[in-house]
Request: fold
Amino acid sequence: MLNPQLVMQISYQQEATLQQAIDLGLRQEEFEQIKEILGRTPNFTETAIYSVMWSEHCSYKNSILWLKTLPKDGPHMLVKAGEENAGLVDIGDGLGCVFKIESHNHPSALEPYQGAATGVGGINRDIFTMGARPIAQLNSLRFGNIDLPRTKWLVRGVTKGIGDYGNAFGIPIVGGEVFFDDSYNTNPLVNAFSAGIIDTKKIISATAKGPGNPVFIVGSATGKDGIAGAAFASKDITEDSANDLPSVQVGDPFMEKLLLEATMELAQTDAIVGMQDMGAAGITCSTCEMSAAGNVGMEIYLDRVPTRQDNMLPYEILLSESQERMLVVVHKGKEHIVKEIFDKWDLHAEQIGEVTDTGRIKYYVNDQLVGDVPAESLVLGGGAPQYKREFKEPSYFQEFKKFHISQVEEPEDLKAVADALLALPNIASKRWVYEQYDSMVGTRNMTTNRPCDAGVVNIKGTNKALAMTVDCNSRYVNADPEVGTMIAVSEAARNITCAGGEPSAITNCLNFGNPYNPESYWQFVGAIKGMSAACLKFNTPVTGGNVSFYNQTVKNGTEIPVFPTPTIGMIGILADRQKVMTLDFKQKGDLIFLIGQYTEDIASSEYLSTYHGVKASPAPYFDLELEFQLHQAIKGLIAEGLVNAVHDVADGGLYVTLVEMSLPRELGFDIVSDADVRLDAFLFGEGQGRVLVSVTEEQEEAFVEFMVESQVNMTLLGHVTKGKMQVDEKHFGFITEAKEIYQNALAAHLEN
Reply:
């Protein structure tokens, strides 16, 4: 119950001051703009509303102008970027795939378990709020030096948070990536991806319509956890950030499961006008965005909101980011349908207001007006600020380009190098992480025991499957943001293609430093340009995503940003799920071919950066046109049944790819290198646009004919062995030895 006297004193009568606005994260010029919009000085509650809605996290004020340049049209698009809670693509048979990726970086830096768990919960709500049932999850995780105690604490907390929430919620995690680098020591990145299936005739819009229609809050009660979380996510991680711990939300996966089922049941009725998840900025965001989308207003009575604590102030209720809540606009006269369904699932469903035709959001407590704001002035693409920041090329960019392979001496014992690479945290098996996740719940995952370059899930009731992946090598992006991001999109498409799918569309999670730092903003602009070029080439439009700035730490007044990390989440369609392609060698004697262009290149490789300690080098070799041609060839080979294993050459280079193909059946390989290329570059270089395939004796003739016609480069490397690994007739050990190193290295780091 709210205390009316306290409300009057703090939220209604007190005008906000400039210093209060600045303390809440607004800039002086923004505060003056708010005064012009309102025609008066805002009170404290109204200032708090603008502070979260105009925060970087909600308004994208420093990124929206560049985001608008990304390609949004494609052959499968049903809902474009920015139109709803998540993107939607057509997968045929009257079905669509709703998918999205978002960050929960700052909360995870402070409280890794709840930060990661609520990231999983939030991204799944974005999916089922549209009426889609989530069927699969991925995650992309970045941590600092693995030997630091804090990094180990973060890894344990984040992975347990993801596992506990996802497992209890009942959605399988079918893939992901984990990357370690010192740049993430203070500020880890936790990017969560979810995909769901929907009947395209039953999409629920995040739009309010119909003056007089009731507005409900459904799900969990509102508490003080996560207050101003959006504003917290829009500033630096510093030594004082522990004071922001209340900004971290607390999740309840069992409550979310009930909310999912109630929502799915509600979606089958004709009671809903619109619905939106209460994520960042809570009630404030959902009421403003839904109203602005429908060109309407709302009157909201905060004293009707179910709360966990007594005497919560208006701004606390408005800015709370308590989890497992949604806002629902209901057709007048059908309120009982909503109440009955949510009562059945033992969830709150309270009417807290109604839609108006004013275009304004009016917030009341005990019939006392405590806030009155025009909805359009608060939202992305409306009245929220839009800035185009200055950017400049950092000095390191040209320095990195000066690297040449001749500056590094080739080691004499390359077997020792190979073993060392297999034990690196960025190369070794992530089994320690993924064994905490339930990958089998729901009986849709088709890759649990069939290793693929992408996660593949069955679309029940059809002969189709969905392939999905998350990809970004942030070392490449740091070396060259434009090329590095083109590589990220291309690798995502390559992984989908190698699994037998047709790339369809992407979502992105753009993790960068301070947008007011011209060098950090230059990285962001370069990434957008690279993403646009690659998405246009592969015809994979951007359906939406998330921008996360301020991923850095400030020490002694100096900003230390993370590697720029534009994580790409991509989905693809397998028209025939029987044609899923796996990456494992099948039998002794099969021929091993390298498809694609090869160059003598070790730039930005794990081998160069970690083994040799050379951090300054350009992005690896990449040619977008040759990459596209490679993908077309791989699609043809799989469609015609001319290969029995396919795996892209990525982190760690050719040698690691060969080991990964050998491990599942404990086979081996005997290959011959290119005499014109340094052997370390041949084995460990990460030049792009290459895929390894294995071919049976019966497939060989047709395979060679197909490749000659495709005009894509192919090289016969050697053949599959029973378990011995051999390069240029030199013994590199047995696969059982490599397996021991590869599968146990990460655990050895984390458990010591």
Notes: The first strand starts at residue 77 and ends at 79.
